[in-house]
């Protein structure tokens, strides 16, 4: 019988450290599938963030570099400018990209750095214990908003993708999710586009992935997926932003 | 004595550091404007494109040092420059660079602090530079030039040391040294190459894994015992650096009753005082640390007399004095004189402190 | 020999260029030299100054606390730097812009209308070159051909008329000296 579903060559075959139902594993795999399909494993360099995905490089069988919290795009800029022939991407969470790394994100995008960013938006800080993220929804309970996020004190969910879209240096932004097989297929297509853009030197490309964190949403994995499609996607609408 | 013209050019200390970096094969600069080091980014913005290198004016010092980390991770020789408040911001990235064992050169043209302080020359970042600065168990190699020629020469050394030990190297100057001009010789040091010169020379670099197993550049070590093992590895490296890389200049220390200890700008001023006093038969000398870390303990291993007095002179409230005390080990008295906040002790002032008015 | 010089005036008078010229000349004359500018907010408006040392021996402190010569191009600089001249030292004064008289009696004062001479030559901005001419004819720093060499080097790349006017300015300034 023909084997039709394989582990991507770029994905290391080890047990996951992520929680059951976490979206990181899906996102990691999609990146690896795209890397294989584009045949870029020997020239890709990944920049891992600080957050749950801090050891993303354990799963990726290609060159990787660490960055301080929020500085993934700055590190990626240093790499890409020295090795323009390499394909360089950052993999960042909402805290890394939209809070502590906001300046690095905006300026890398505004300079039109020829980079790919995979942005995991799960509305909480996972690694540190489920604190409020810039993308946490209003009234959403977290470790640091026990009564729910209140606009008066914590402001509103930050839509960084929409914020970046008007910048002339930005080539492509799309928001996708991983809450159903169909949406995962769409997510892969967007990730592929973001890498192809870099191959074609189009400038800054970003894919925002709405990703479940059942542990800190306090939900079972299927409920977390449902919450993404029924609640989170209403506040952060899916589709091409630029 | 004649100072032969040769190929000398008149250049500021800041520009000498920048040109030194270019001639050391550095092909990546990222930095953020701050006085009194702005001549460096200005020079780099012109020079880097000429040699096929990269110049980036970053959005912040935080970004600049992380850009340098990325560039260094690819094996490229990379530099960032700033002045005191900006160097405080860069401590985050310096700690990561030390942890990930990347070679990089960081320049601090010091101004007075704490806080915004002012833009005048100071030496008040000695503790920050030599005792770590950022978080964690690590050391920068710290070089302290005292002339514009040395700004150039030590920048060449800085890149070599950074590569040799895979460690951040800091060049610690001050506003006066950065801004002043002196004639220097820059030609004939290194072959001048265009574009990245370090390609494939560093087997650990991230360049894409074609033809080899993937490389990882990281400081994170979570597994039990792994970080301690890494810290011990770093400690062994620092011990080796302490043993092999101490540099200093001694000036007229024979039979000295008094030895001034000073570095950088302060050392050249102290040297003037020593020269004048020796001409008046005073038995006085100078020890000038060139490496501030490793501190040149070897220079203090033996004192010229059992009762030689050491006088540490600094443009701070006394930050190097503790290292001198440790090096002297209680054998001889160690005194301190300093000015701070942009104040600079003059030759006359130093003389007066030592001998009173009547010399 | 060691010669310590302070050049001062206001931003835009080419004070820093004067200092760099003297240091470049020192290099041509196989001397040691340092040049230390005032930097920061002070160089925009207000007074600007730089300190130059020329010596047969290696120079230690680049800072000039007591100058052998001060070239003072405007009024506020006179009150600021008059007391920094060594007894018996030389003061070159831009008579065009300074009406008060120096209080010091123990120094040699040479008053020359540098700015007026520059205006007559067609460009007030070459007053610094006139002053350099006077200084160089008063002090034996380097022979004439070295001065011309440095002048050509520093003016290289500028418009021909700018080069010409500066050459003239230097010659005009040289007509004045302390003798």
UniProtKB/TrEMBL annotation, chain A:
<dbReference type="GO" id="GO:0016625">
    <property type="term" value="F:oxidoreductase activity, acting on the aldehyde or oxo group of donors, iron-sulfur protein as acceptor"/>
</dbReference>
<dbReference type="InterPro" id="IPR051457">
    <property type="entry name" value="2-oxoacid:Fd_oxidoreductase"/>
</dbReference>
<protein>
    <submittedName>
        <fullName>2-oxoglutarate oxidoreductase</fullName>
    </submittedName>
</protein>
<dbReference type="InterPro" id="IPR011766">
    <property type="entry name" value="TPP_enzyme_TPP-bd"/>
</dbReference>
<feature type="domain" description="Thiamine pyrophosphate enzyme TPP-binding">
    <location>
        <begin position="66"/>
        <end position="209"/>
    </location>
</feature>
<dbReference type="GO" id="GO:0044281">
    <property type="term" value="P:small molecule metabolic process"/>
</dbReference>
<keyword id="KW-0560">Oxidoreductase</keyword>
<dbReference type="GO" id="GO:0045333">
    <property type="term" value="P:cellular respiration"/>
</dbReference>
<dbReference type="GO" id="GO:0030976">
    <property type="term" value="F:thiamine pyrophosphate binding"/>
</dbReference>
<dbReference type="InterPro" id="IPR029061">
    <property type="entry name" value="THDP-binding"/>
</dbReference>
<dbReference type="Pfam" id="PF02775">
    <property type="entry name" value="TPP_enzyme_C"/>
</dbReference>
TrEMBL record, chain B:
<feature type="domain" description="Pyruvate flavodoxin/ferredoxin oxidoreductase pyrimidine binding">
    <location>
        <begin position="19"/>
        <end position="201"/>
    </location>
</feature>
<dbReference type="Pfam" id="PF17147">
    <property type="entry name" value="PFOR_II"/>
</dbReference>
<keyword id="KW-0560">Oxidoreductase</keyword>
<feature type="domain" description="Pyruvate:ferredoxin oxidoreductase core">
    <location>
        <begin position="256"/>
        <end position="350"/>
    </location>
</feature>
<feature type="compositionally biased region" description="Basic residues">
    <location>
        <begin position="187"/>
        <end position="200"/>
    </location>
</feature>
<dbReference type="GO" id="GO:0043807">
    <property type="term" value="F:3-methyl-2-oxobutanoate dehydrogenase (ferredoxin) activity"/>
</dbReference>
<dbReference type="InterPro" id="IPR009014">
    <property type="entry name" value="Transketo_C/PFOR_II"/>
</dbReference>
<protein>
    <submittedName>
        <fullName>3-methyl-2-oxobutanoate dehydrogenase subunit VorB</fullName>
        <ecNumber>1.2.7.7</ecNumber>
    </submittedName>
</protein>
<dbReference type="InterPro" id="IPR002880">
    <property type="entry name" value="Pyrv_Fd/Flavodoxin_OxRdtase_N"/>
</dbReference>
<dbReference type="InterPro" id="IPR052368">
    <property type="entry name" value="2-oxoacid_oxidoreductase"/>
</dbReference>
<dbReference type="Pfam" id="PF01855">
    <property type="entry name" value="POR_N"/>
</dbReference>
<dbReference type="InterPro" id="IPR033412">
    <property type="entry name" value="PFOR_II"/>
</dbReference>
<dbReference type="InterPro" id="IPR029061">
    <property type="entry name" value="THDP-binding"/>
</dbReference>
<feature type="region of interest" description="Disordered">
    <location>
        <begin position="186"/>
        <end position="205"/>
    </location>
</feature>
TrEMBL record, chain C:
<keyword id="KW-0560">Oxidoreductase</keyword>
<dbReference type="Pfam" id="PF01558">
    <property type="entry name" value="POR"/>
</dbReference>
<dbReference type="InterPro" id="IPR019752">
    <property type="entry name" value="Pyrv/ketoisovalerate_OxRed_cat"/>
</dbReference>
<feature type="domain" description="Pyruvate/ketoisovalerate oxidoreductase catalytic">
    <location>
        <begin position="11"/>
        <end position="174"/>
    </location>
</feature>
<protein>
    <submittedName>
        <fullName>2-oxoacid:ferredoxin oxidoreductase subunit gamma</fullName>
    </submittedName>
</protein>
<dbReference type="InterPro" id="IPR052554">
    <property type="entry name" value="2-oxoglutarate_synth_KorC"/>
</dbReference>
<dbReference type="GO" id="GO:0016903">
    <property type="term" value="F:oxidoreductase activity, acting on the aldehyde or oxo group of donors"/>
</dbReference>
<dbReference type="InterPro" id="IPR002869">
    <property type="entry name" value="Pyrv_flavodox_OxRed_cen"/>
</dbReference>
């Amino acid at each position: 019988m023909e084997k039709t579903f394989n582990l991507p060559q770029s994905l290391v075959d080890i047990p996951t450290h992520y929680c059951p139902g976490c979206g990181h594993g899906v996102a990691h795999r999609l990146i690896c599938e795209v890397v294989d399909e584009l045949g870029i494993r020997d020239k890709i360099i990944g920049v891992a963030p600080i957050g749950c995905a801090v050891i993303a490089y354990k799963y990726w069988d290609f060159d990787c570099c660490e960055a301080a919290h929020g500085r993934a795009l700055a590190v990626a800029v240093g790499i890409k400018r020295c090795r323009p022939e390499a394909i360089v991407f950052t993999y960042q969470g909402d805290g890394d990209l939209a809070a502590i790394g906001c300046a690095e994100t905006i300026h890398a995008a505004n300079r039109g750095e020829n980079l790919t960013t995979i942005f995991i938006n799960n509305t909480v800080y996972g690694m540190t214990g489920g604190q409020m993220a810039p993308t946490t929804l209003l009234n959403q309970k977290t470790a640091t908003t026990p009564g729910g996020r209140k606009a008066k004190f914590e402001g509103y969910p930050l839509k960084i993708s929409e914020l970046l879209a008007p910048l002339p240096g930005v080539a492509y932004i799309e928001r996708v999710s991983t809450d159903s097989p169909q949406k995962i297929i769409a997510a892969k297509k967007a990730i592929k586009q973001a890498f192809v853009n870099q191959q074609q030197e189009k400038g800054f490309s970003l894919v925002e992935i709405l990703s479940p964190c059942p542990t800190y949403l306090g939900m079972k994995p299927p409920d977390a997926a449902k919450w993404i499609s029924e609640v989170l996607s209403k506040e952060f609408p899916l589709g091409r932003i630029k | 004595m004649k100072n032969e013209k040769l190929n000398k050019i008149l250049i500021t200390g800041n520009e000498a550091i920048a040109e030194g970096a270019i001639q050391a094969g550095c092909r990546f600069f990222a930095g953020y404007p701050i006085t009194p080091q702005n001549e460096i980014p200005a020079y780099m913005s012109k020079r880097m494109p000429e040699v096929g290198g990269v110049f980036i004016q970053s959005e912040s010092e935080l970004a600049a040092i992380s850009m340098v980390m990325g560039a260094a991770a690819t094996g490229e020789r990379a530099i960032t420059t700033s002045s005191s408040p900006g160097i405080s911001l860069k401590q985050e990235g310096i700690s990561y660079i030390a942890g990930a064992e990347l070679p990089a050169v960081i320049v601090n043209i010091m101004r007075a602090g704490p806080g915004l302080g002012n833009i005048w020359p100071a030496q008040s970042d000695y503790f920050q530079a030599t005792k770590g600065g950022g978080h964690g168990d690590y050391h920068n190699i710290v070089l302290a030039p005292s002339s514009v020629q040395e700004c150039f020469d030590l920048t060449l050394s800085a890149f070599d040391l950074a590569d040799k030990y895979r460690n951040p190297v800091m060049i610690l100057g001050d506003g006066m040294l950065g801004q002043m001009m002196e004639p220097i010789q820059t030609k004939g040091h290194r072959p001048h190459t265009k574009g990245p010169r370090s390609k494939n020379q560093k087997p650990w670099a991230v360049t894409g894994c074609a033809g080899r197993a993937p490389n990882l550049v990281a400081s994170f070590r979570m597994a039990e015992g792994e970080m301690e093992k890494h810290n011990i590895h770093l400690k062994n490296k620092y011990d080796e650096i302490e043993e092999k890389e101490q540099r200093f200049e001694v000036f007229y220390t024979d039979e000295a009753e008094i030895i001034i200890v000073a570095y950088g700008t302060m050392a050249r001023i102290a040297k003037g005082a020593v020269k004048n006093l020796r001409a008046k038969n005073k038995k006085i000398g100078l020890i000038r640390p060139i490496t501030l870390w490793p501190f040149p303990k070897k220079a203090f291993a033996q004192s010229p007399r059992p009762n030689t007095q050491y006088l540490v002179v600094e443009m701070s409230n006394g930050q190097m004095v503790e290292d001198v005390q440790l090096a002297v080990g209680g054998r001889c008295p160690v005194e301190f004189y300093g000015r701070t906040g942009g104040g600079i002790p003059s030759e006359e002032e130093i003389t007066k402190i030592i001998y009173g008015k009547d010399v | 020999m060691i010669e310590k010089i302070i050049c001062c005036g206001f931003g835009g008078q080419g004070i820093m260029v004067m200092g760099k010229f003297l240091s470049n000349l020192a290099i041509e004359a196989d001397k040691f030299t340092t040049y230390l500018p005032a930097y920061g907010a002070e160089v925009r408006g207000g007074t600007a100054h730089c300190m130059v040392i020329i010596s047969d021996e290696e120079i230690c402190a680049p800072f000039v606390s007591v100058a052998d010569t001060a070239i003072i191009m405007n009024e506020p600089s006179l009150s600021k730097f008059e007391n920094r001249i060594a007894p018996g030292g030389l003061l070159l004064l831009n008579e065009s812009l300074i009406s008060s008289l120096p209080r010091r009696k123990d120094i040699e004062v040479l008053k020359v209308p540098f700015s007026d001479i520059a205006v007559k030559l067609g460009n007030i901005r070459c007053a610094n070159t006139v002053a350099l001419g006077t200084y160089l004819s008063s002090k034996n720093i380097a022979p004439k051909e070295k001065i011309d060499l440095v002048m050509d080097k520093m003016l290289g790349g500028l418009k021909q008329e700018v080069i010409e006017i500066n050459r003239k300015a230097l010659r005009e300034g040289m007509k004045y000296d302390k003798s």
